Amino acid sequence: MTRILIIEDDQRVAELLKRGLEEFGYQAAVAFDGEMGLRLCRSLQPDVVISDVILPKMNGFELIRRIKKENGSIPVIMLTALGATDDKLEGFDSGADDYMVKPFDIREVDARIRILLKRTGKSGSRAAFRELAYADLTVNLLTGAVTRGEKEIKLTPKEFSLLTYMMQNPDRVLSRVEIAENVWSTHFDTGTNFIDVYINYLRKKIDKDFDEKLIHTRTGVGFIFSTHENKN
């Protein structure tokens, strides 16, 4: 599957875009600020990046300049509510390959992606993300191997799905509702605690034997996969 990285701070827009692209057969990951977007771009090596202009922590123009400096072959589509000519020119000067103004039609986004893939010679590339890495934790998506440091970790299929979703969405709080919908493809029943149970299963395998913890609970809100929580 062609790999798309969406960098958009509006969670509703990001999720709509992600689900729409997945319906067209793409594999999509989401970052909600510029710094997270740069980290995911480095680790996932997507085929196309779709980025908003107005982003927390690092604006889209600076983000694209850094992405292009590190890997100039990754095509970037700027997606923003700003439609002024000056904004478009700055976007292209930053290295953007295409520019779309919100609100957008997902069919047009798909068409723009296919044009960029054809232009860059990646139209036949349907390789999925092969590896996720965060801190000293590595997940091979092809073989299912999970390692932290030099330790190999055995996970059940559902634990593996939960971990990969959290690794694809680091440094932000994931609610139980979001986890249920994206990992279990079901609506969260507030009368059950199955997500907490699986989080505890995963925490025992991923964090228990390590000083730096990666999975953290935000009471009353959800969970966050991050190294930053250890510094608070």
Q: Please, how many helices?
A: 8
Report how far the terminal alpha carbons are from each other: 38 Å
Please tell me how large the radius of gyration is: 18 Å
What would you call the shape?
A: globular
**Could you give the order of the helices and strands?**
EHEHEHEHEHEEEEHEHHEE
Total beta-strand segments? 12
Oligomeric state: single chain
Specify the helix fraction band: 25-40%
Mean pLDDT: 84
Widest sheet: strand order? 2-1-3-4-5
Low-confidence runs? 124-128
Name the beta content range: 15-25%
Explained architecture:
This protein has 232 residues and is an alpha/beta fold. It is built from 8 helices and 12 strands. The protein has helices spanning 11-23, 34-44, 60-70, 85-94, 106-119, 157-168, 176-183, 194-206, and strands spanning 3-7, 27-31, 48-51, 76-80, 98-101, 131-134, 137-140, 146-148, 151-153, 173-174, 215-218, 222-225. A 5-stranded parallel sheet has the order 2-1-3-4-5, sandwiched between helices. It has a 4-stranded antiparallel sheet with strand order 6-7-8-9, covered by helices on one side. β11 and β12 (222-225) form a beta hairpin. α2 runs parallel beside α3 (60-70) and α6 packs across α8 (194-206). Mean pLDDT is 84; it is low at 124-128.
